[in-house]
Specification:
The complex is a heterodimer of chains A (233) and B (508). Chain A contains eight helices and ten strands. By secondary structure, chain A is an alpha/beta fold. Helices cover 52% and strands 12% of the residues of chain B. The chains are: A alpha/beta (233), B alpha/beta (508).
Chain lengths: 233, 508
């Protein structure tokens, strides 16, 4: 088991956002998390890499446990270790606007992994080519289309060479034509055997990219099965 | 890279300004450094201490000649320490100068604050009115009227004894006569040498009644410096005996027989006017004032104004570098610090923003010595401007950092960056773009606010302007020149600010 969430509960402003959500992902698996808005999908995803703290339950990533009982200093240490194993891709891309595509993808390897500037850029260029952006290395985010931006964001996450990728509504902010271009890249990554957790409300993306689908409702994971079982034909 | 080098140069300047005291530690004996520094206000300083209208680099005045003579007798070189007249004694006591000489009248209050030599001039007060004035013949007619005088002067005290007078105080001596001529006030009551010089040459003004009241000018020395007091007093006594003082006063048309009473063995130091009883009447020799000379070329003033502008720019640049650095620290503490640090930083911003810069400067310069901290003038100026602006800059940074979308922090954190790395590589580079235009605007504002530091003896562009304008009555010509110099400094900055703004807009 690479990623496991056990009975995660989180309240905010008096309302339960997560109410005992659980999730298991084995290495090499691509899991789509679906469900209506407000079901807690994105929050659950953010609990996995410590972006959002939770009130009870536990997250295990590659044997590292995150839980509310941890001492703050120890929690910080473990969260950083977990984040090295989990890359993340956001609905709104969140590229760094002051950096080029290459610099966006090289920043983490250089500053977090400690690679030399040249090694980091070589690696960043390699992953940008993998998402078919070899010709846009020196473009700034403002000069790229939405689909290109999301692919830079994927390359940025991949350049950290994580054990798994977390994708939060990766195509929801895109026009239909651009959705397809990003979905195609995600499909290629699955074919390469990358472990992924994809939060989406778009069944088409889930069908095309996921080996398994988990359905959430009202802060809980309610069903798990093949895309055909959960989403229908 | 040039920005980094500029910052380094500015920092070096700042450190030097803070480290090297304007005034070295007190020498073992009096004037061991070979310099007799004297505090005086050359702004509107005629005929006492002022810049020669015909040669703006040269200090002239009867007191300048007296100090030159004393200094030469003590084997030292005289050096002016410019300061606002009402601050001369506090500045003397905090060690800004060895002595203070500037028509400082002996009063009970001043005798408590500092030690004084024997008097070198016996003066009377003169009431001046407009040429068409008929109501006012003497001080007794002043009830209910507005009367101008110099702030902190003996004349102000005497006016306070006349019932019903509305005293209007001025920081200089030129302004009350201007206001009188233009009808803003009804009369001016000031020392006769001042009245003779500034009103005597103005056909719209006339004296009302004879001079009245007597007072004495004497040289102030720190109470803790009896050796210097004895030396200066001895030199002055010698000048009275051999006639040097008389020759100086005659040259300035200030001599009259009453002055002989000062060299009499039992010269009384009684304070004031009528109470002192009738003595030999004090008059300028022929009532004719030393004429005002109009300068033949305004360009002669340019080097002096440029020097002031240089001080304005250097002071503003160093202070702004300091403010920007400290402001960033304050902003970061307010955003990321612990509860106590956050509260402290917030209190700092509120207190500094909510009190006048002028009071902050006075506190730093004249207030801190009471606690044993004596800052040199330039150090206090940089510190005052920097500490003040840091509060404003910190709010600009804070707003800038807060305006960056939350997703940027999430993206940086999900890459495994620490809080510091997130700040350094993601948040600050984006903040700099948004804050550069408002920070540049504040720099322009600082160029102008820096004129306030003239209250703590720093002579920058505005002070250089007012000193030379008052010496020549050329407020218009020198004013336009000075305004032009301010524009020359601020316009390029405005352009830079607009360019940066455009760049920031295109960033995303």
């Amino acid at each position: 088991m690479l990623i496991e969430a056990r009975e995660i509960r989180k309240r905010a402003g008096g309302a339960a956002i997560l109410d005992g959500a659980s999730l298991s992902v084995v290495r090499g698996e691509t899991v789509a998390v679906v469900g209506p808005s407000g079901a807690g999908k994105s929050t659950l995803l953010r609990c996995l890499n410590g972006l959002v703290p939770f009130d009870s339950g536990a997250v295990l990533v590659d044997g590292l446990e995150l839980s509310p009982e941890l001492h703050p200093a120890e929690r910080t240490r473990r969260v950083l270790a977990v984040r090295r194993r989990l890359g993340m891709v956001f609905q709104e891309f969140n590229l760094f606007p002051h950096l080029t595509a290459l610099e966006n993808a090289a920043l983490g390897p250089r500053e977090v992994l400690g690679l030399s500037a040249r090694e980091a850029e070589e690696r960043a260029a390699r992953y940008l080519e993998r998402v078919h952006l070899g010709d846009k290395l020196h473009a700034r985010p403002a000069e790229l289309s939405g689909g290109q931006r999301q692919r830079v964001a994927i390359a940025r996450a991949l350049a950290m060479e994580p054990a798994a990728l977390l994708l939060d509504e990766p195509t929801s902010a895109l026009d239909p034509a651009l959705k397809a271009e990003v979905a195609a890249v995600i499909g290629e990554l699955r074919a390469d055997g990358l472990t992924m957790v994809i939060v989406t409300h778009e069944y088409e993306l889930a069908r095309r990219t996921a080996g398994r689908v988990v359905e959430m409702a009202a802060g809980r994971t309610v069903r798990s099965g093949t895309p055909a079982e959960i989403l229908g034909g | 890279m040039t920005a980094t080098r500029l910052a380094a140069v500015l920092l070096a300047l700042l450190l030097r300004a803070l480290a090297s005291p304007v005034h070295a530690a007190p020498p073992p004996g009096p004037l061991a450094d070979g310099v007799l520094s004297y505090g005086a206000d050359a702004e509107g300083g005629a005929p006492y201490v002022f810049y020669d209208p015909g040669d703006p680099g040269r200090l002239v005045g009867f007191e300048v000649e007296i100090v030159e003579e004393i200094a030469s007798r003590l084997g030292a070189k005289p050096q002016l320490r410019q300061n606002a007249w009402e601050s001369l004694i506090p500045a003397l006591n905090r060690g800004d100068s060895d002595i203070a000489v500037n028509g400082i009248e002996l009063t009970d209050g001043r005798l408590r604050e500092a030690a004084f030599t024997r008097p070198y001039y016996l003066f009377q007060q003169q009431l001046t009115v407009r040429a068409d004035e008929t109501r006012i013949k003497s001080r007794r007619d002043l009830a209910g009227l507005r009367v101008g005088t110099l702030i902190g002067s003996l004349a102000q005290e005497l006016l306070g004894e006349v019932p019903g007078v509305q005293t209007v105080t001025y920081p200089g001596v030129l302004e009350p006569y201007e206001d009188l001529a233009s009808g803003r006030i009804d009369a001016v009551f000031l020392d006769l040498p001042i009245a003779a010089y500034y009103a005597g040459s103005n056909p719209r003004l006339k004296p009302a009644g004879p001079p009245e009241g007597e007072g004495y000018y004497a040289i102030a020395v720190k109470r803790s410096d009896p050796e210097l007091l004895a030396a200066v007093d001895g030199a002055l006594a010698g000048m009275m005996l051999d006639g040097t003082l008389k020759r100086i006063l005659e040259r300035w048309k200030l001599w009259n027989p009453a002055q002989l009473r000062l060299s009499a063995p039992a010269a009384g130091l009684s304070r004031t006017g009528e109470a002192a009883g009738p003595g030999t009447p004090v008059q300028t020799a022929d009532g004719a004032p030393v004429p005002l000379r109009k300068p033949d070329s305004w360009w002669k003033y340019l080097p002096h104004l440029l020097k002031g502008a240089g001080m304005t720019f250097a002071l503003s640049a160093v202070s702004m570098a300091f403010a920007v650095t400290l402001g960033l620290g304050i902003a970061l503490v307010r955003l990321y610090g612990g509860a106590a640090a956050r509260a402290g930083a917030t209190a700092y911003v509120e207190i500094v923003r909510g009190t006048p810069l002028l009071i902050q400067l006075y506190l730093l310069y004249y207030g801190l010595p009471a606690l044993g901290v004596k800052l040199p003038a330039l150090g206090a100026a940089v510190l005052g401007l920097g500490l003040n602006y840091a509060a404003f800059e910190s709010e600009i940074y804070r707003a800038g950092i807060l305006s960056i979308p939350r997703g940027q922090t999430e993206a940086a954190e999900s890459l495994g960056m620490t809080r510091w790395q997130t700040l350094r590589f993601v948040l600050l580079p984006q903040t700099v773009r948004t804050v550069l235009p408002p920070v540049t605007n504040d720099f322009i504002a600082m160029l102008k606010d820096s004129s306030l530091v003239s209250v703590i003896t720093v002579v920058e562009l505005t002070k250089a302007y007012s000193i030379h304008a008052a010496a020549t009555f050329s407020y218009l010509e020198l004013g336009l020149m000075s305004a032009g110099l301010y524009l020359l400094m601020s316009l390029p900055l405005s352009r830079l600010s607009r360019r940066l703004e455009r760049r920031a807009r295109f960033a995303d």
